């Protein structure tokens, strides 16, 4: 029994004794005991996962994020003057359109001919003139506005602001006033609650968009407008509920005086009905519920999902002790003093960010999730599918967040429709294709520049990501829904692969190895992805009992794709030619895709390629951008080198600088600037260090446990085949492994050179005996 529950049990005994004497105080204490007993009966984490700080945020990358998949907000935690910057998921520049260039395929043969002749620059020049999408650039995700609170008479101390990852509530305590902010998915609203005696505050909305209207009347403020260079129109509604005191509109603001508490409910909507339909009428919904009901609905929605997984490193005493320092100070201290609990916090923060930015019915998490305060964000805060978008969702299945994938699958089906136009116009091919970026309008054509924008395997990678979800969930209905997308992606490559110079092997052309080397033919990443796509599509066809001839053709073509090659210095070649530079420290490690997230390269099945992949990864070094380090944590875990994974993790957990990757004070990952994929990629990497299931039916426990984590426990981790994994270890040795699956199955479980066949009955936990 937790300590607080033991105390409450003793208090309950006293309250019952007092009740025997019929005193009012006794009855009051009994009522309090009942309430607290309910709290104690609710499962809670061993140690609350919280980010906390001793001063308000001064910069956006110090503010604390909340989100519900539709609205995102950044809470600065100001006492007297508060800023809460917010976003709505469909506010982008631009308009529905096809980016495909009509008739671009007429120049494809010449581009391939120039590449085959070694005339790379000429090929790029022709591609820039005749093969790129129209327009050349895609559009940008936009901020929406800010809530501004100005409150008189707020004491500056004591002060504390925190974000509770368990509840999704950002709390600010300043003097005798308390503020709580959360983004409710059930009510599609951002809720701001402030409590304290005699509250005297003004409430305003602002927006960075020049074309807007604003009015305040009664209990609410309405904001409407549109971004420049956009057909998207928005409507915002901010309504106040006041307890005690007075509320009135003054100009474009609301004025609250003498209140003991007030609640602000922010909702927003746009005219966007879909990626190709903006005929809606923006009307921000009205939420009539009062604060206790709003809070409870949010908690009922949020808490059970966050508690699916517990992830604890170090002893409970160490976790409590390290949590006494503000989070920004813990980041600064990490390099000098081991803090395993901070790594565990980073893992749960990744889960929190994904669940807060990606929900069914919303847009997928973009380069910044759902949070952005810039009219011109870096890389337009789009969807970059040569690594970043996929990395966003690496932890979704592993970390028990499968519902966060629904927006990605919705986008995938939309991209298959848009990509069919691009396949036809740019390649005269069936099926569909997606290059390295897409936006709200589902652009699939090559953009920006030929030297990195012509990369045709983005759709194949996203399709494989969905196939991997099937490997986890074993949901036949999902596979049937996915199959046309898989088949279309495979059809495209079955039609467009060409013979390399010797005529022996099939390759892609034109393409590039993201994002370096310029326009080339047959980079390793393409070959790895297409091989995996053909295998997955054929397996899906067999599972569903359809398209036997097509599956057989894919098997034949797969065997003709140019294999991975080992170069002159023992490296895995990134290109067909043996031209890899051992001094190259580029952030992309694209040619290692088959090691992670793919699984073609494996210690037992392909030992020579496994060693070559290690050689390449060693050459790329341990310093990189934030997201690249997130990828490398996973790669070193797949190489079974937990201490090297930890080295990369340690390099990431440091204060970010203007040109230095790391973590901002609010634990956002820095490319720099902020990109959410680093947070999410490293969360997946920490799971790979502890549990791997590269294929259904095979499970590896603690395959890459670093010496810096001698003790810990995890519960709720998911493995392929719908297997839940609970582990505990001490002194670097596994002490407990409990597995469960909703369906009966047999697993081969590996640990420390041991192998055991384990039969899991449906729905029952099985304790696996492994280790000394």
Describe what you observe in this structure.
The chain is of the alpha+beta class and 772 residues long. 34% of the residues lie in helices and 24% in strands. The chain contains 20 helices and 31 strands. The strands form 7 sheets. Strands 1, 2, 3, 4, 5, 6, 7, 8, 9, 10, 11, 12, 13 and 14 form a 14-stranded antiparallel sheet that branches. Strands 15-26-27-28-31 form a 5-stranded antiparallel sheet, with helices on one face. The two termini are 29 Å apart. Mean pLDDT is 93; it is low at 1-47.
Condensed summary:
Helix content is 34%, strand content 24%. It contains 20 helices and 31 strands.
Task: List the uncertain runs.
Answer: 1-47
Task: Indicate the overall shape.
Answer: globular
Query: What's the pLDDT, averaged over the residues?
Result: 93
Please count the beta strands (DSSP E, at least 2 residues each).
31
Q: Span between N and C termini?
A: 29 Å
Oligomer: single chain
Q: Strand-residue fraction? A: 15-25%
What portion of residues is helical? 25-40%
Tally of helical segments:
20
Largest sheet: 14 strands, antiparallel
Structural class: alpha+beta
Keywords:
772 residues, alpha+beta, 14-stranded antiparallel β-sheet, five-stranded antiparallel β-sheet, 20 helices, globular
Q: How are the elements arranged and paired?
A:
Elements: H1 3-20, H2 24-41, E1 50-53, E2 64-67, E3 71-75, E4 81-88, H3 108-116, H4 120-130, E5 145-151, E6 159-164, E7 169-174, E8 177-184, E9 189-206, E10 212-217, E11 220-225, E12 234-243, E13 246-250, E14 253-270, H5 291-306, E15 310-313, H6 316-322, H7 327-333, H8 340-357, E16 383-384, H9 388-392, H10 394-398, H11 406-427, E17 437-438, H12 450-453, H13 458-473, H14 476-496, E18 498-499, E19 506-507, E20 511-513, E21 516-520, H15 524-544, H16 548-558, H17 607-620, H18 626-638, H19 642-652, E22 662-663, E23 669-670, H20 676-690, E24 691-695, E25 698-701, E26 712-719, E27 723-730, E28 733-740, E29 745-751, E30 754-760, E31 766-767
Helix pairs in contact: 1-2, 3-4, 8-20, 11-13, 11-14, 13-14, 13-15, 14-15, 15-16, 18-19, 18-20
